[in-house]
Amino acid sequence: MLLIHGWEGQAGNFADLVQKLLEQDYTVYAFDAPSHGFSSKGKTSLFEFTELVGILIQKYKVKKLVSHSFGGVATTYALFNDKNLKIDKYVLLTTPDKFIERINDVAEQVGITEKVKEKLVKRLEKETKLDVKKLNVSEFVKEINVSSALIIHDTKDTVIPIGRSKNVQANWQNCTFAEIQGTGHFRILRTESVIEKTLAFLNG
């Protein structure tokens, strides 16, 4: 079992879930991504995060996953990049969809102009040799080896609108969707009913 935290998160975010998993005799792996939590400080990127997730899945022969928020992007991208990685069960506690949507969100929050944003996107594409518009979870999931997946998302999540998760689920053949209320974006990790849904799915 591997747990993948979100952007600006850390392994400790899963503390309540970890306790329940250990009670059920799961072997649990969790980590602080580069520049997150107690990890080394400095710059990091989606691509470094993704590479680490892929390495950990392969090294520990992981068959079950739980991710939160941006962790879903890194995880689905890792599985997309390596089709030899095969997962039995995967729970996503909210997930973004399109990378460009995240760029637009940040640009709006900090007041970046359209011209500056376009320059940033071009620089990113030049450095990564990737089309940012194709960095979509809803595209990754069409080609990854996951036997069964569940997305849980709060209807009033103000960080990631629920429509983004729904679009991912609509493009994912083996994925079901659970709408919840009253947890928001972060409290979802500590909500007992969400933990119960997660465990029921993983054990099913």
Which properties best describe this structure?
204 residues, alpha/beta, Rossmann fold, 6-stranded parallel beta sheet, 6 strands, globular
Overview of the molecule:
- It is a single chain.
- With 204 residues, the chain is an alpha/beta fold.
- It folds into two domains: 2-96 and 136-203, Rossmann fold; 99-135, no CATH class.
- The protein contains eight helices and six strands, in the order βαβαβαβαααβαβα.
- It has helices spanning 15-23, 46-59, 71-81, 99-110, 114-128, 137-140, 162-170, 192-203; strands at residues 2-4, 29-30, 64-68, 86-93, 145-154, 175-180.
Overall average pLDDT: 93
CATH superfamily of the largest domain, please?
A: Alpha/Beta hydrolase fold, catalytic domain
CATH class of the largest domain: Alpha Beta
Number of helices: 8
State the CATH architecture of the largest domain: 3-Layer(aba) Sandwich
* Overall tally of domains: 2
SS-derived structural category: alpha/beta
Largest sheet features: 6 strands, parallel
Estimate percent helicity: 40-55%
Taken as a percent bin, the fraction of beta residues is 15-25%
Question: What Rg, in angstroms, do the CA atoms define?
Answer: 16 Å
What multimeric state do the chains show?
A: single chain
Q: In total, how many beta strands?
A: 6
The N- and C-terminal alpha carbons lie at a distance of 15 Å
Order of helices and strands: EHEHEHEHHHEHEH
Strand order of the largest sheet: 2-1-3-4-5-6
CATH topology of the largest domain: Rossmann fold
Catalogue the unreliable spans: none
Gross morphology is globular
